[in-house]
Amino acid sequence: MRKLGPRTASPWRRPAAALLAGALPVLAFPAPGLWWWAWVALVPWLLLAASAPDGRAAAREGWLGGFAFMLAMHHWLVPSLHVFTFVIAALLGALWAPWGLLVRRLLGTSATPGRVAAGLVVVPSGWLAVELVRSWQGLGGPWGMLGASQWEAAPALRLASVGGVWLLSSLVVAVNTAVAVLIAHRRARVAALTGLVATGAATASAWAWSPGPQSGARVSVAVVQPGVVAGPDSAERRFDRQERLTRDLAGRDVDLVVWGESSVGHDLADRPDLARRLAALSRETGADLLVNVDARRSDRPGIYKSSLLVGPGGPTGDRYDKMRLVPFGEYVPARSLLGWATSVGKAADEDRRRGTGQVVMDTGDGLRIGPLVCFESAFPDMSRRLARDGAALLLAQSSTSTFQDTSAPAQHASLAALRAAETGRPMVHATLTGISAVYDGRGERVGPWLGTGASAAEVYEVPLTRGGTTVYVRYGAWPVGGALLALAGWGAAEGAARFRRPAPAPPAPPARTAHGSPARPGR
Predict the structure, then answer these.
(1) What distance in Å separates the CA atoms of residue 418 and residue 295, rounded to the nearest whole number?
(2) How far is CA 443 from CA 88, 356, 414, 423, in A?
(3) Cα atoms in the Cβ-side hemisphere of radius 13 Å centred on 319
(4) Which of 258, 380, 432, 488 is most buried, most CB within 10 Å of its CB?
(5) How many degrees, rounded to 5, is the angle at CA 118 between CA 112 and CA 121?
(6) What is the pLDDT of residues 240-284, one digit of tens each?
(7) Per-residue pLDDT tens digits for 144-198
(8) Quick check: 435 and 404 in contact, CB under 8 A?
(9) Rounded to whole angstroms, how far apart are CA atoms 283 and 275?
């Protein structure tokens, strides 16, 4: 009988495992929102990359895991962008290929205990570098940063005031790395436990030291959410519904009324009748209205999305034009090359124009507000800038009506909690079709969410922050600087070690026989 050799492992087993491992962290985000899962969700991916047979396999598994993470995080884009969603996920996933190499180098089976100990710092730094690159608006922005999964954890929100979402991402990856080391490296378990204890001690110290925001005066903010209005003349019918809901606020002593993104479909200079109706609403409610105009400007070429403040006498002149546009949704990057996306999905047929600077507005009651539009609430630097410029209340006007039955509305609403905690400023997230939400300066929820099935005007008593500023507002994304320094230091140490390593000795010349000819091996 012929003797059978060992069964060869399937060539698809490791790639399939990488895809599954990369998608696992998404369970920590809404929905289902298992925030605690993030602290161990990366362990399978780390163990897989660390055990890769060679560098090429580690890079491939880093890329496949990144592709799966991006695709799972943005799966709700598939109905709009179709196959292009997979293309974007594949391109962004490539950012994790060097991270896979880094994991294998530092945590691989042949790594020394010292190298593994260094990995507890360098591996989280590598992840933060990936988040930094993909946070560039041209690559889609920072949607789905790992630290954003902690928006419901009060201790994590307190830490966000120290180092922003960047610090949370770094801590989550550090804990995952230590757990992976405990599982895979018996000789380095002391280092892993030491790293966990040090991380816990530093986290507890930062939490105890960071001053929490002190609540001051309260302002009454009304959020008007009309709900889904579709079909012919939807802009006119949406305006009518918002007008009715706002009129019901008369006599409720509100300080500010906020409408969602694209709540007005015509430039007010072209439609003075709409401007008069808004001014009348301001007089009836006794409050300024912050609306959002999505229309072609009458005073300059192009379509803009603009936050406008309207008072009893009409538009006050305070205007913010959206600066960071949604790729493919509001403009097509490199349209001459990627314009075909409009033929396979719902990509923008015409690029919208960008604003040139952020704006802090003064309402009639002396309240200073800082508006953001749509996914600008995902960018921590924008809310930080508004807080530094004196905004006492942050506002995000959004519309996720295209993605009503997906996790996108909940993911978007959760971002406002992080921006509030980072800046110590309360934040209002007002949408057309839900989810609308309000958070105080600690990132804790104020009042009820307005879900995707609601058509209502809800009044929130929002506590303003009394004095002071957070460490994050003062010093910005310092964890990113620390991560880049750690990577540079590790790279320099690796280069120095390679330079000091003695070069291999040249092969000895072949021995010669008595007749002068080279000796042959085995003779």
Answers:
(1) 30
(2) 31, 29, 10, 9
(3) 16
(4) 258
(5) 150
(6) 999 999 999 998 999 999 999 999 989 998 999 999 999 999 999
(7) 999 999 999 988 999 999 999 999 999 999 999 999 988 888 777 777 787 778 7
(8) no
(9) 13
Lowest mean pLDDT among 160-174, 227-241, 300-314, 387-401: 227-241
The first and second tokens of residue 31, run together, are: 């929905």
Asked if 358 and 368 count as a contact pair (C-beta separation under 8 A), the reply is no
Residue among 15, 26, 16, 28 nearest 69 (CA): 26
Q: Are 323 and 355 in contact (CB under 8 A)?
A: yes
Cβ neighbours around 155 below 10 Å, total: 11
In whole angstroms, give the CA distance from residue 230 to residue 228. Answer: 6
93 and 65 Cβ atoms separated by less than 8 Å: yes
Query: What is the identity of the amino acid at 327?
Result: P
Burial letters 336-349, b for 16+ CB under 10 A, else e: eeeeebbeebebbe
Per-residue pLDDT band at 209 (split at 50, 70, 90): confident
Q: In the numeric block, which tokens belong to residue 366?
A: 């002396």
State how far the Cα of 515 lies from the Cα of 297, in Å rounded to an integer: 96
Task: State the DSSP code for 462.
Answer: E
3-state secondary structure 59-84: HHHHHHHHHHHHHHHCHHHHHHHCHH
Nearest Cα neighbor of 281 from 308, 310, 253 is 310
C-alpha R_g of the chain: 28
Considering the entire predicted model, what is its pTM?
Answer: 0.88
Q: Which two tokens stand for residue 451?
A: 């879900």
User: Does residue 387 contact residue 469 with C-beta atoms inside 8 Å?
Assistant: yes
